[in-house]
């Protein structure tokens, strides 16, 4: 699962390390669910491990199944708000950015994220 974390009209994106799969692509923070964990538990755990942050989960977006050449995944996105805005610590990413939807085209996302970005854009636009 992954988190679209909002703060002050922006949301957080993170760049994957070069040495990993999908290296240097930008993604939403998150990771894999471990045995016995709910999606929500896993999200809170991953965000604490990766960024040292706590969030409130606002709503789920539609899960995306995507088959890459060498692996497949179910990407389950959640819209969240940041609860504590201490200094963000990046433990597992190359870089972090708070961006607006207008800026998104400048960042290269994994293919699985394309439907997520589309749904999120529609969601935000319909709130105006
Ligand atoms: N967190 C996150 N992962 C994404 C997104 N889009 C996307 O295709 N993925 C892929 C990348 C990873 O292969 C997988 C997330 O699992 P992970 O974060 O635990 O995997 P990882 O690459 O850090 O570790 P590894 O198991 O590949 O060694 O999902 C996204 O927006 N956020």
TrEMBL record:
Catalytic EC class: hydrolase
Keywords recorded for this protein, A-Z: DNA damage, DNA repair, DNA replication, Hydrolase, Magnesium, Metal-binding, Mutator protein
Family recorded in the similarity comment: Belongs to the Nudix hydrolase family.
Name of one Pfam family that matches: NUDIX_4
Domain Nudix hydrolase: residue ranges: 1-122
Cofactor: Mg(2+)
Catalytic activity: 8-oxo-GTP + H2O = 8-oxo-GMP + diphosphate + H(+); 8-oxo-dGTP + H2O = 8-oxo-dGMP + diphosphate + H(+)
InterPro entries assigned to the protein according to its UniProt record, in alphabetical order: MutT-like, MutY_C, Nudix_hydrolase, NUDIX_hydrolase-like_dom_sf, NUDIX_hydrolase_dom
Secretion signal, residue range per the UniProt entry: none
GO MF, one annotated term: 8-oxo-7,8-dihydroguanosine triphosphate pyrophosphatase activity
Swiss-Prot/TrEMBL GO biological process terms: DNA repair; DNA replication
Name of this protein: 8-oxo-dGTP diphosphatase
Species in which this protein is naturally found: Prosthecochloris aestuarii (strain DSM 271 / SK 413)
EC number(s) reported in the record: 3.6.1.55
Top-rank taxon, per record: Bacteria
The keyword Hydrolase appears for this protein: yes
